[in-house]
Amino acid sequence: MAWKISRNKQKKWLHLAVGAALLAGVSGVLPGMASAAEVTVQGGENEFYSSVGEKFMIPHDGWPNGGWPEKWYSVFDDDASKNNTITFSNFTAPDYGVRVAGGYGAGVTVSGNTITVENSVISGQLAGGYNSAAGEVSGNVVTIGAGTTTNGSLDVFGGYSNTENNTTDVKNNTVNILTAITLQNLKGGENKSYWAGMNGNTLNIAAAGVQATYFGAFENINFLIPQNIGTNDVMLTINGDATNLGGVNIGVGMQQGASMTVGDSVNLMKNNSGINNAPTTATPVLTTKAPVSLITDKQYNFSLSTIDDDKMLVAKLDSITEAPAQGESGGENEGDNGALSAEMVASSQRLKSLVETQAAVATVLNSGSDMLADAGFEQAGAAAVAADSAGKFAPFAAMGGSSLRAESGSHVDTKGFGLNVGFAKEVRRGKSTYLFGPVVEYGRGSYDSYQDNGIKADGSSSYWGVGLLGRQTNDDGVYYEGSLRLGKVKADYSGNLVDRTAEYDSSSKYWAGHLGLGRVYKLKGSNSLDGYVKCFFSHQDGDTVTVNLNNGTTDEISFSSTDSQRFRIGARLSHQVNPESSVYGGLAYQYETQGESRATYHGFDTAAPSVKGGQCYDGAGLEDKAGQQSRVSGPGSYRLGWQAKGYQR
């Protein structure tokens, strides 16, 4: 036995496409609602009674036996009417069976409850929701999963309301049958009058060999054709009165791994007493767990007919097409791509999520540029000054990190660090001092991207490169500086795209650099003011990557090159504490003029996330020219540096 109270979680209501996805083998993804209580029953009779509490006794003319009280069981909970989950796993019912309601109420709304049976032997009666008085019973789910058999008569109801003539109270309930099983009753809803109406109740059949005697009260019936279904197999057989399909929507789709060719037929429903008012057109059900691509699904289009003197309902496969995936908008088709169009690609949030990785990589590269222009130059200069012999190269190192948010229509949060290692040399010529040297850079970061529709992705990026830095400082305080680096950047992506996952790796070359102009003004006492203007630029080559989807399907997207150009103006006020140390604070404003990431998908342009815009920076810290330096600058960043003291080559 297991018992737990889980936090509220919002889930979507089941509709046809989600039902198809559920029955494609993901029986754990159940629709409806926040979970109030979860109970798992394993074992036999004792485990059942200790896990599921006896919530109520019905002392009326009872359903369905009539004439004596019936004991029904539901969860232990102060409010047992909503959002409960009961799971039977590896359970064997007693000989007399069980009567279990996912949720119970007496005149209140009973909704959002779930019963799941898997790998168990079960008999008795199961109702997703039970109302012992007149009242609404809606949005409840019963799932008969794989490995389930019966040891007696079994009734399955989406919901029950103890009302005499009301045919609107029991609505929008779902029954999922994922395995071959024989049932006595199979109904979307029931009441005292034995007819609760169809009212949006849904049946999803994902196996051949399902049988029932009493059947009805379903407005939607979805048949998900399983693998290796035989020519003479029937998915659902009704052994009772004639079945009336008037007003019923019949959906037909394919489970992952099933195979049919255009012109093939499959037996959906059989009733030797007759099938009346059968529709002639099937509602297409998307096989959303076997996507064709990142943004399209395979759609099977069936026509319906009855044969054998209207005793058998069959579906014939007329065509196979592509259709927009859940949440994607279509637009007018262009070219020979089926459902694919320029409008669909440009508006796709799935594709935008993939492209945002390039924006994250650009952010990490830019953080590396900032660190080199800040702590890198300072540590290089301090190392050169500390060398005993002028004109000799001295080693230095600088390390920095950041935690930044890039607004790109949605937003991308990045965290990372960078490292500069190099040799610096300082030379005096006339009234100017020249600092220059080679540098090796390395950086690594992680990112999370978020979109308003719930799509989330994460990944990591890394870069390494080589370059040169240089600075000229005049005696009047004016200085000029610059750097140029080139290298290689790698990134990986993992995204949860609503109803599928996607992963890819990318690799490309980059070059980056900066130019700066400033002047240090001597103020009263031991104070100085450094005013500067700097321009940062970077270029990241494009890349065409293979995207791996969760069902083994692959797709492709091509990233264009990404350019960044940032202008920064700022000032820093320093106070010399002693000859070796100073404290400082600063403020700067930066504006990104480019920062747009572009891509093409099957020849069409995707959405282009952009980080163009302005941003303020502030910072403060302690500088120790004899060794360590620490700095806090920018929104959520840090800098550390090291240089050799007295090193001589």
Structure write-up:
With 649 residues, this protein is mainly beta. The strands form seven sheets. A twelve-stranded antiparallel β-barrel has the order 31-32-33-34-35-36-37-40-41-44-45-46. Strands 1-2-5-9-13-17-20-22-25-28 form a ten-stranded mixed sheet, with helices on both faces. The protein has a nine-stranded mixed sheet with strand order 6-10-14-18-21-23-26-30-29, with no helix packed on it.
Tell me the overall shape.
elongated
- The radius of gyration is 34 Å
How much β-strand is present in the residues? over 45%
Q: Overall pLDDT, averaged? A: 81
Q: In angstroms, what separates the terminal alpha carbons? A: 73 Å
Range of helix content: under 10%
Can you summarize the main beta sheet?
12 strands, antiparallel, barrel
Question: What's the β-strand tally?
Answer: 46
The chain-level structural class is mainly beta
